[in-house]
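haha ok so turns out i had the wrong file open the whole time. this is the CORRECT one, sorry everyone. sequence first:
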Amino acid sequence: MQTFMIPGTIFMSLLAGALFGQLRGVALVVFAASAGASSCFFLSKLIGKPLVFSLWPDKLMFFQKQVAKRREKLLNYMLFLRVTPTLPNTFINLASPIVDVPYHTFLLATLVGLIPAAYVTVRAGIALGELTSLNDLYDTQSIALLFLIGVVSVTPALLGKDEKTPEMAVATS
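then structure:
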């Protein structure tokens, strides 16, 4: 589904949580999403350039400029993109090979950056499977863990804050 940009992966993540539990569900979702994103990356590298240029010319130019500016700390930037809704994941998967993001950087940022979203959706799948009342949705431990994941995820971007351009400041606010 991820390779060919078919919507509905969130339902598969919810199902993974309900069927496999937290640890195995997150591992499965991150592995499957990373494999799909990698397939999309290589498919785009082979035949995606005209499609990306026709669908998102402005976003592609913006992304290309940002990647060029952040070449030294590209992993931090790619990780930031994966954990924030600055650019859609579909666009990142398709555009990364076109703007010369190295595959190892793309893969590592994808593997690490998808963990927070995978955790949330798998956890939601578990909760939906065990739901008996609305109070079951609020768990102090889960909220604290999500907060910690969020802080850890954006720390590299916050540490490199002096390099942030006005465009990124607007895009992230």
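Residues 164-173 have pLDDT under 50 and may be disordered.
again sry for the mixup
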